[in-house]
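Schema walk-through. Below, the input block comes first and the output block second. Nothing else is stored per chain. Lengths vary across the set, and this one has 482 residues.
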Amino acid sequence: MKFTQVFKKFPRAFWVANTMELFERWAWYGLFAVLALYLTNSTDDGALGFTQSQKGSIMGTVTGILYLLPLITGAIADRIGYKKVLIIAYIILGSGYFFMGEVSSYGLVYFAFLWVALGAALFKPVISATITKTTDDETSSIGFGIFYMMVNIGGFIGPIFSSKLREAYGWKIVFLMAASAIAVNLILVLFFYKEPEREKSTESLGTTLKKSLTNIVTALADKKLTLFLLIMVGFWTMFNQLFYTLPNFIDQWVNTSVIYDSIANISPKLAAAIGTKDGTIAPEMMVNLDAGAIILFQILISTLVMRFKPLNGIISGIIVNAIGIGLAFSTGNGFFVILGIFIFALGEMASSPKFTEYVGKIAPKGKEALYMGTSFLPVAVGNYVTGFLSGDVYQAWSDKISLLQTEVAKRGLEIQEIGDGFSQNDYIAKAGELMGMTNQQLTDFLWTSYNPSKIWMLFSAIGIGTVICLYLYDKFIIGTVK
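--- output ---
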């Protein structure tokens, strides 16, 4: 069938669903790409000034819950209808994003983000199911290709807008942007979304939920599947450092002005479009190179790894991931950080699609869908573990404020505790004054004295450990999967 003929076969619900996916990802990544900075940066910059541990707890726990909830929310959608669930999801998401920008206490921010996660968990299974039900054997390949393209376009556009908006108008505009994107989706679902045909269940909601849980437990009774999913927790733990930890690392340690200056020498307009008024590159703009690379190169990389066995593709991708994440965290040189992010993206393009394919391959015949339903579990657990590493471990090993506080205590200097009326920026300025250093000299001193980049070894080791476990698993537990 010709490409143009395939396009004509898609019903309106397919295109509306894809458009809603784009705006939802715009809202989510527009916030998530800068969330680590918003939670931990200095209060006099408009951020919340939380510790890295508090950041890790919020992001890790809530996002982990988000990936577990679709087990329940998918069953609810099948029971009461896709359109109703989408309307509820958008009301929760829109109000959640708005509320997050209005509160500043740890407890309320935690609750608001959990509220957002509930909305996202209601949205996720409905949109995927809509794409499934509006495609057939002839159109599904192209249909899901379009869907994942929308995911990445939304994930690429969102951080660009949030980066430029927060610089121009402050942090609150980021949450208003996210809420506005969800408002567009609410209009789309109310006036343009037609629910695809589905089998209406006569079961009670409780029975439906019990069946869903029973199916997961049945699949996990296969020890081979469970072991594979446990191993893949390592991949997701390493992968998530890109969003949880790298923005903080870049913000605290990386000199991005050299990148801005190099771009400005070629095109001042491009440098102004990408960079900040201070002549630097915002961390979220650098991390966003990952999504940009996927949009440009996913088809090429997928073609190259198409002939790989699924596990070989996963292993190759994770090795490249480990190299990229290690390079990004091992240096204060902005150019090497960018190179590390690009290398990481290449590995992501090779490994992520093969993960789903591999789960399908190891499933017994007739149980493919049942096994696929478990694929979110390592994502959920990986997010939770990431929260600990990005929180407690990063704070102890690499957080600039924590290392400076250690040095201040070592020198016996008297500086007021960070809190109301005395921000992180105030603390850094006072420490620099007492130690006779400029801000940059202080950063260089802490980098040399405390080696915050050593955290790269932990993140890369998790990736390499995952690769070793996958190789041993395939060789001794399950055998070769073709």
